[in-house]
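Notes from hallway chat w/ T.B., transcribed later so I don't forget. T.B. wanted the structure written out for a chain they're using in a teaching module, and asked if we could keep both sequence and structure tokens in one place. Agreed to drop them here.
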Amino acid sequence: MGNAEGPTGAEAAGTGATGSRGGESSAAGIAHRVPDLGAMELLLAVARLGSLGRAARELGITQPAASSRIRSMERQLGVALVDRSPRGSRLTDAGALVTDWARRVVEAAEAFDAGAQALRDRRDSRLRVAASMTIAEYLLPGWLIALRAQRPDTAVSLLAGNSAAVAERLLAGEADLGFVEGLSVPAGLDSTVIAHDRLIVVTSPGHRWARRRAPLSAAELAATPLILREEGSGTRQVLDTALGGLARPLIELSSTTAVKASAVSGAGPAVLSELALGEELSAHRLVNIPLADVQLARSLRAVWPTGHRPTGPARDLLSLTRGV
């Protein structure tokens, strides 16, 4: 008995002597010394059912796998836990004590899981999307209808603005996922390209450009006062960069719909996304003016704060955009 108790006392003394110095290594190694939850659940099932075979069936594993898991647990702890016989399986005294500890660990794990699920449910109950105007008006409605079919209980709010405003919303934590149209990704955001778009020059049928035979040059477009989106919009950024500068705007408006309506009224030429002009071009309310020497192409991107890949409803919405 003295020899048996000696090492235990020495170990206890050693643990106390190391104090905080040994605490870090103890915490780091606990996963290697404590059985995993699956093994604990198996031991609890054996205690409840009195049979290793019945416990294995309840947990959906084979009896050999269950036996191997119990033996591994016994080796890990250094004590026998289960006495096996033709009449069934019975816990040893040590096994009964370990089972009591295991029950508390499993109950704590179940409480942890329930809390984590509550956090996921709270996250999944809403989705805040920020999108630049063209995407908000012409692409997002279809994506959100498809998302509702997948997640009918998720409430979605949409904040529409220019690309600069979308970046501000995301960085301030006011949106879970954003969509922008500019040439570059705003600082502090990660992105993925979801579609490609083209800007085209349009006028009303009565404008003099509608009767011209030669394509419009980039220089002539740059020198002409246009109906434009406001500073900070992706459309304005692409146009300004491609032309190397713009004349003073004829009119400056904050939405694609407003720019389009002004062009239809004959106020002047405008440059807009091809996505936004299908109906007006088909009905001949606007005329596409060919460009000679410049391509106004751009990428549409989904964006999110750097290092925070979308999860839950935001991840599902992102996956729906891949079909564009």
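Follow-up for T.B.: The chain is about 50% helix and 20% strand. Might be a good example for the class.
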